[in-house]
């Protein structure tokens, strides 16, 4: 079956399935005297995600929205297999991400706006070459996609620059092109527009829409920018204090809030009200509320 026919068959099928997933972090407490910490370390367990259920279908872009510390990045780390759930079940394209099977890794891509997957001291082009070899993408197909996406994001002239010489926005745009060049079926974007200028944000949103619609890529997007949500997302999931408490189609949400898609300011106010109504706390309070202390020996989480 060729790629187009395969995409058509996949349209609307559940690609990402998260069932009752919780994730705890264990961190060492540092408040007692040093000798006591060494002899009898104390740890506390913090619930970053609590019994989360989520689904993403082929051709959908799900926006995961919530205040700082809500658990968004933790969710993405679980879906990419960087972390394993403490309980519950995750299936991405039928794979359990934590097993990191090569078949799974070949079909997903992730961009973390605040981290880089490009080699810092090498020209951008070299990272691209390395990734093409790692994913074993045929040269022609890879080149075709890189040219297409690099052109859309205006990064074609940056290919011979060292990554460390790029501005934040330039680097993120290169990361996105690289993430898409092996034709992933699942795309995870953790704050991809952070630090990106207005025009580049528009280009990124156009690109995201294109891969979601034309390639049926199941996409998860976390962002604090309301325009990213209205421009890209077919669905929205609300997360707060590790709980996903509502998942809605974007059009239904706009209707519920009585907001038009182009009124980002009003939508932002409605979203803030929604979180406030549920009792938005500061990071410190929330961490404390979700935390239990345990006196055990062991390693803390990364
Ligand atoms: N390695 C870790 N060890 C302990 N606690 C952690 C760790 N990583 C995250 N946390 C805690 O888990 C919670 C969820 O963090 P996460 O990074 O997933 O939030 P987020 O929604 O992505 O926040 P932001 O919008 O600020 O990026 C926070 O309270 C955070 O302090």
SSE sequence, one letter per element: HEHEEHEHEHHHEHEHEEHHHE
CATH A-level architecture: 3-Layer(aba) Sandwich
**Poorly predicted spans:** 284-289, 294-300
Counted up, domains total 1
| CATH class division | Alpha Beta
What strand line-up does the widest sheet have?
5-6-7-3-8-9
What is the oligomeric state here?
single chain
**Overall 3D form:** globular
Q: State the CATH superfamily name.
A: P-loop containing nucleotide triphosphate hydrolases
Distinct ligand kinds: adenosine-5'-triphosphate
Q: Got a strand count?
A: 10
**How many angstroms does the end-to-end distance come to?**
42 Å
| Class of secondary structure makeup | alpha/beta
Largest sheet: 6 strands, mixed
- Helix tally? 12
Computed over alpha carbons, the radius of gyration is 20 Å
Strands, helices and their partners?
Blueprint: H1 3-10, E1 14-28, H2 34-39, E2 43-57, E3 61-65, H3 72-80, E4 87-92, H4 102-107, E5 108-112, H5 124-135, H6 139-152, H7 168-180, E6 186-190, H8 198-215, E7 218-222, H9 226-232, E8 235-240, E9 243-249, H10 250-257, H11 264-277, H12 283-289, E10 291-294
Parallel strand pairs: 3-7, 3-8, 5-6, 6-7
Antiparallel strand pairs: 1-2, 1-4, 2-10, 8-9
This protein binds adenosine-5'-triphosphate (ATP).
Residues 25, 27, 46, 48, 66, 68-74, 287, 301-302 line the site of adenosine-5'-triphosphate.
